[in-house]
Amino acid sequence: MPRDHLDAVIDEWREQLPDVVGPSMALGKRIHRLALRLQEVVRSETAAAGLTPAEYDVLSALRRAGPPYAVKPSDLASGLLLTSGGISNVLRRLQQDGLIERAGDAADARVAWVRLSEAGVAAAEKIVRAVTGAQARLFAPAPDALVGEAADRLRDVLIALGDIAKED
To answer: Where is the HTH marR-type domain positioned along the sequence (predicted)?
Structure first.
C-alpha cells in the first residue's frame, strides 16, 4: 500500500512515544492536513475576489438561506462560529461594499435582519462557484467514489461525536 507524508510522521512518533500512536492520531493528522489544503483553496479564491474567508462564509450562508436571502446577525454568528464583534466587523465591511443590507423587522422592533443586496446575490454566487470549483480541482486526482466514501465516513465520525443536524 502506498504511504503518504503522514505515515512517516506517525512512524517517528511510534519510535518516540509509541503509546500516543493509534487510529485517532492518524485520523486527526490527516483531517488537519486536508483542512489546511482546503483552507489554502478558499483563501486563494476569496483573496482573488477581494474577500476574506469570513466574508465568504457570510455571503455563502446568506445565499444558502434562499430568497429573500435574509438571516439574523446572531444566527449568522452562531452558525459560523464568530463572536458578536467578529460578525459586526464582517457585516460592516460587506455593507460598505454594497453586498448586504441591514433592516429591522416590521413585526418586532427588537429583531434585525441582514440581507444580500442584488449585487450581494451575484457576488455570493460567483464566489461560491469559484470556491467549489477550486475544491473540485483539488479532489480531481481522487476517484469520485473514493471522495464520496470519505465524506460518508467522516459524517459517521462526526455523528458519533455528537454533531447531529437540528431538525427543522
So the answer is: 24-163
C-alpha cell at 48: 482573488
Is the preceding peptide bond at 67 cis, omega within 30 degrees of 0?
Answer: no
**What are the beta bridge partners of residue 100?**
116
> Which domains can be identified in the chain, with CATH numbers?
51-160 (1.10.10.10)
Catalogue the long-range contacts made by 29-32 (C-beta closer than 8 Å, 24 or more residues apart).
30/4, 30/6, 31/154
Q: Which three cell numbers stand for residue 152?
A: 460518508
Write out the three cell numbers for 18: 509509541
Quickly count: other Cβ atoms within 10 Å of residue 93's Cβ.
16
Distance CA 17, CA 102 (A): 54
Nearest Cα to 71, choosing from 94, 52, 53? 94
**Helices (runs of H) and strands (runs of E) counted in the chain:** 7, 3
Overall pTM surpassing 0.70 (yes/no): yes
Rounded distance, CA 43 to CA 52, Å? 7
C-alpha cell at 133: 470549483
